[in-house]
Amino acid sequence: MIPWLLLLPLPVARAAEVVGVPPSLQASYAPSASGSWKCLDGSKEIPWKFVNDDSCDCPDGSDEPGTGACPNTYFYCRNEGHTGANIPSSRVRDGLCEPECCDGSDERPGVCENICVEVGKEYRKKRAEELKIQKTGAKIRSTYVAFAEKEKKRLEGVIQTSSQEITVREKEVARLQDIADRTESLSAAELEYKKESPLYQSLIEHRDALKSLQREHKKHLEREKTLSEILDALRTGYNPNYQDMAVLDAVRGWEYLAGLPHINDVGKDASAETEDVEETDSEPEEVIPEGEWTAVQLEKDLPKLLKTDYVSLLLEHDEHVSTPAEGSMLFELSNYLPDALIPQYEDFKDTLLGWMEAIGVIRPSVGMSTGRCKATHAQQALNDAKNSLRKVEKEKQTAEEDLQKISDSITFGPQGEWKKLDGTCLEKDLGDYTYEVCLFGASKQKPKKGGTTFNLGKFSSWNPDAEPGTPEYYEKQMYTKGTKCWNGPERSLLLVMTCGTENVIHTVAELEKCQYQFTGTSPALCLPVSETNGGAKHEEL
Question: What is the pTM of this model?
Answer without folding.
Answer: 0.55
